[in-house]
Amino acid sequence: MRINNKLNLAVLIFSFLLSSCGPKKEVNKTVPFSTPDLDAKVEKVMSNMTLAEKLVQIEGIRPMEIMEDGKISLEKCRQVIPDGIGHFCQFSSSLTMSSNELRDFVRSVQNYLLTETRTGIPAIFHEEAITGFATQGATTFPQQIGMGCSWNPEQIEKNSITTRNNMRAAGATFALSPMLDLSRTAHWERIEESYGEDAYLTSRLGLAFVKGLQGDDFRTGVAATTKHFAGYGTQNDNPKELYEEYIMPHEALYKVGGVKSVMPSYGKYKGTAVAISQEMLTDILRNQLKFDGLVVSDYGAINLVYKGHKQAESSKEAAVKALKAGMDIELAKPIAFPFLPEAIEEGLISMDVIDAAVKRSLIMKAKLGLLDEKPEIGKDGELDFDPPANRKMAYESACQSIVLLKNNGVLPLKSNVKKIALVGPNAATVQNLLGDYTYQSMISFWWSTPFDPNDPKLISLKAGLENRIGDKATIQHERGCDWSTPLEAVVKTDGLGDDRLGKIKMLAIKGLPQPDLQNALKISAESDVIIAAVGENLYLCGEGRERKGIRLPGEQEAFVEQLIATGKPVILVMFGGRQQLVNKFEGKCAAILQAWFPGEEGGNAIADIIVGNVNPSAKLCVTYPKSGEKQEINYKNAYDANNLPQYPFGYGLSYTTYEYSDIVSQANADITDDRINISCKVKNTGGMDGTEIVQLYVSPKDATSTMKPIQLKGFQRVELKVGEEKQITFKFSPEQLAQYKNSQWIVEGGKYEFKIGSSCTDIQLSKEIEIKGSNRILENGRNVFFSINE
């Protein structure tokens, strides 16, 4: 099956536009999920299917269900999936197979489905992908919150192209990524999976991710799934906030990115579980946003309606409610949907509703090439999921994700530094490199299985410093303290019910010597500089792992204070999936680096920043709090002047300085104009080549405006050599001012201040522009999301 010529042209235009530097032009890519030819093909297949054969196409299972002694069991296949299956769920992150073994396993399963089931329909093998293909040996990129701080759509697209290639080589065609939730509190354990707190930034980066993952044709790409629809991890009942912000990244990816799969959240909307919310999944998603693709459940979310939310009397009722609301597929195992035959007999649901879900499931398979006469499963030959080119991208990504929060001049290290004390629980280990939904985190947390730190090779900070410093200085290492003793996290036992947190801690500390505080203080006092590697690891942050607060875990805060007391300059390197409080000692540290979970090349990247081989460029994609209060922070509401954060959204230091000048724009524009040009000059006035992330914000000037006080509406990464100056231009659409009011989208005329700066509080230039004309109602909703860069 091939897409028609008109669609091919649209896809090619979209590919060209996104592959260039920044969004040159926005193309609405709202193309149909299906075509008449595809409909006919799928309907022909369905016309000969039994009810049992249809139902399995809207269910998923895990690979272990059909395995024995680590290999496929044809006998189990015949018992468990005699009629086929829709999806194999998180198929690689639960296995310890080499790349070749994994591909051969997938081929064996698909061969069984093609040759031994009556319908001969292959399964979709799906996996997580926010940090790369979650499988043994595959490149592990920085966690998504770190990539959010890169503000680099082009890098994210390149990374996800490698993910696509790896997944397709193994026979996988579908990803439960990207995660688009806006995360506005560091207390949420899943904040690390997000691109931060801002809808515009999340939309831009998410769009780049799916462009790389899906490519130009579903038949050779990997289908992306946006999650979690909509407003997960936050309060989503305010319609204005929901529509303008929490829905925006999903909507942009559907309309511009061509995404055709969505995963609803575990949460609730207006008191109703999203998994059964007619308003969320049909009224908003399908009717208003015109989404016509596949809706897949989060793992166990349908039965959670019955067992957890208590909004159904049985699993059967939960299944009926979910399908009627707009859900299509139950993952990760059939719990509720097996009761559907009873529901049909009892008249609780019609076959039309079930057939619609089955049809969408099969259309997705057809789009991915799985219903071809001879579907291509995997790539022949020896597979390498972490070639040198991939590692280089992982290194570049890590360099761009690490935020320099403070520097009194100690960084980059000077040539007279000869003795370095490298201390802290994250100094020489690799668990702090790995975010949740990496292969390593998933195999160790969910399956209590150790991972191989050499497959792919994980570079610790100690190894990175030794690689970069060599014999130029002496590095003495001592842990000094543990990550957290006793455990400073609890597992949410809903659906877990075991001591997997204790198990993963034992895996993390296996083979490590006991920390020696006195030795750490001794070598620190004798050093020229102290590098303290602190923060979280994979058992202290992630889904199902809830910490008691957001200060440095365990005794680490006290440890840092003791290091400061030595009088030697302390360079604090903080790892983790969230912002962690530094207010007690921020003023006493010589430098602070926020490393997040930087992936396989994290140690080399941090070392290069410390020694000055790399000039840091990352900017915060979240607001850094100053207190441990459990509250949401959103820079768009404007910070309280009496309660400023530790560091604002968009903030990040460099080893050089930049000068902004000469803002130019028209004084007024019409509300129906296509674009408004706003330009300025940026110059590198320091002594080191660097990259500045220039940010465009808009604030309403009219007192009657209901628009939020400040909003990001554009950004550009500008590479500048020493003394170099460049002019940059933002082409802003008045439609980007759209607000959701009285159940419609409105663009209000009036006066707006356009601000250009290096963070949301560090505004260098501003210009007032009057948007003339009567309020404009967008009858078909919003279609323009981004400023165009010149």
From TrEMBL:
Per UniProt, which keywords does this protein have?
Carbohydrate metabolism, Glycosidase, Hydrolase
Highest taxon of the lineage: Bacteria
Pfam families assigned:
Fn3-like, Glyco_hydro_3, Glyco_hydro_3_C
> Ranges for the Fibronectin type III-like domain?
692-760
Q: Name one GO biological process term.
A: carbohydrate metabolic process
Tell whether Hydrolase is among the UniProt keywords: yes
Recall the GO molecular function terms of this protein's record: hydrolase activity, hydrolyzing O-glycosyl compounds
| InterPro entries xref list | Cellulose_deg_GH3 (IPR050288), Fn3-like (IPR026891), GH (IPR017853), Glyco_hydro_3_AS (IPR019800), Glyco_hydro_3_C (IPR002772), Glyco_hydro_3_C_sf (IPR036881), Glyco_hydro_3_N (IPR001764), Glyco_hydro_3_N_sf (IPR036962)
Family in the record: Belongs to the glycosyl hydrolase 3 family.
Per its record, how is this protein called by name? Beta-glucosidase
Where does this protein come from, organism-wise? Labilibaculum antarcticum
